[in-house]
Every structure is written in C-alpha cells, then in structure tokens.
Amino acid sequence: MNTDNINTEKIKVPTMAEYMAQGKKPEVLFWVGCAGSFDDRAKKITKAFIKLLTKAKVDYAVLGTEESCTGDPAKRSGNEFLFQMQAAMNIEVLNGYEVKKIVTACPHCFNTIKNEYPELGGNYEVVHHTQFLKSLMEEGRLRVEGGKFKGKRITFHDPCYLGRANNEYEAPRDLLRKLEVELLEMRKCKSQGLCCGAGGGQMFKEPEKGNKDVNVLRTEQALETKPEAIAAGCPFCNTMMTDGVKNKNKENEVEVLDVAEMIAQAQDL
Questions:
Q1: How many whole angstroms separate alpha carbon 184 and alpha carbon 156?
Q2: How many CB atoms within 10 Å of residue 92?
Q3: Domain assignment present for 83
Q4: CB atoms < 10 A from the CB of 70, how many?
Q5: How far apart are alpha carbons 268 and 230 in whole angstroms?
Q6: pLDDT tens profile 100-136
Q7: Which listed site, 9, 29, 170, 207, has its alpha carbon 20 to 30 Å from 50?
C-alpha cells in the first residue's frame, strides 16, 4: 500500500475479534474512546493517529463495538456505581482478549485504565498517543521533519490527566520540537498548567455561574503567546480551546490542533 497521502477511508481498521479469529495478537490495542468515536472534531484526531500507525507499520487493533466508555465521566461526576459497572464490562472484554498494551489519544481514558482499572482486575501497560508516537520515532519506525509547521509559533496546552495527574509533560513537546516549531510556553504551563474547563464531568454540562468561563480564561493565556496554532493532546481540551478561540473571534487566525494531527499534516498524510 502506498502510504504517501494515506486515505483513511481505504484503511481497514482491524478489530480484536478478527485477530482472535486468526489466532493472532496485535502489538497494541488502540482504545478510541467516546470522543474519538462519536465527536465529529475528535474523529479527525482518530483518523490522523490511524494514518500515523499505518505509516509506521504498527500492528494494531481496536475493540470496535465491544468498546464501552471507560467510566471516567461517571466517576468524576460522583456515580461510582456506574463507573464500576462500566469498568467491569471493559475489563472482562480486555482480559478475554488477553490485552497487554493499550494506546489512547484521550488522557481521561489513559488515566482511568492506567490508574483505576488495576484495583478492579484490569492490569495493562497504558500509553498516551504522544508517548507512543515518541517511542515510534525513537525506534526509527516513524520519521518526522519540520514540514508545514517549521518555524510556526505554537503553544501547547497541557491536559490535566496527562500532565499533573501522570507527570507527562515532555512527550508532546518532544514531538513538537521534531516538527521544528517555535514552541512558546504559556505563563501557566506544565505542573502549573490551568484546566481547559472540561474535567470532572464539566464537558457534559453548562458551567456554573461566575465571572468568566475557565476555557475562555485558558484561551486568553494561550493567545497571550501570539500563537499561530494551539496544540492539544486531548479531545476534551481541543473542544474547550476551540470554543475559547471562537469566543475571542480568532478562529480565522488561530487553529487548535492535536499533536497527532500536526504530525500527520507535516507528513502530508
């Protein structure tokens, strides 16, 4: 298959059930997540990541219709019972396939499966997609050069569940440096980073009354760096920052892109 300018519509994404039927196991399970499956904007991130997996010739599979919500929104909003039900269902499926390694583009899924599934019987090696892409580059399976983002002013917004919750700040920044961008840090970044406003189940409800919405405040901090694009590593953050940019009427000047999308675009995939 010619991987230059990969058409995702033509990529056959294999399922774990298909692998099982052939008596094979993939190198990694790609956990798509609710946002990556159903949200029109986040689907683009999923497609970009799949293009990169295909380009790097990664042997991967998805659960398809057997994948359910990890239970993160239920747990964060206080419904522990629902969370445990959702988690138990997923763990049963994952253990049934003897899954060892999981990669996901959603820090909420990443944090929940990595840190909260073990006590319920789900023990896996879980990596965020930026960590996985970085490892592919270190192994020489994926090459990235500047391309269209070379020299562009980019600021990176740290997702709470990747950064402060799991202490991963460098993988996404390393990828951006590979793109040879001018990386600009917001005054609140890394361990001091500010939430996009979607955590704790807030993604699915209107914010409480206050002086200013959190996503608008965070977008203002991003715009202070005068970026040409805001890089994100989470579908929730992507939505909140995009809404913030629209609130400031800057959508024609500042793009909000997932790191995986930027790499795929730089590769002209």
A1: 7
A2: 12
A3: yes
A4: 25
A5: 19
A6: 999 999 999 999 999 999 999 999 999 999 999 999 9
A7: 170
Residue in 208, 160, 209 with CA at minimum distance from that of residue 188:
160
| 250 and 167 within one domain | yes
Which residues, given as ranges, of the chain have pLDDT below 50? 1-3
Residue ending a domain, among 135, 164, 186, is 135
Contacts within 8 Å (CB) and 24+ apart, 53-59 = 54/1, 54/3, 54/6, 54/11, 55/3, 55/6, 55/142, 55/267, 55/269, 56/136, 56/141, 56/142, 57/141, 58/27, 58/28, 58/136, 58/141, 59/26, 59/27, 59/28
Please report, for the chain, how many H helices and E strands are present, in that order.
Answer: 11, 8
- Please count the structural domains in the chain: 2
Residues 24 and 105 in one domain: yes
Domain boundaries, position 222: 143-266
User: Is 0.90 topped by the overall pTM?
Assistant: yes
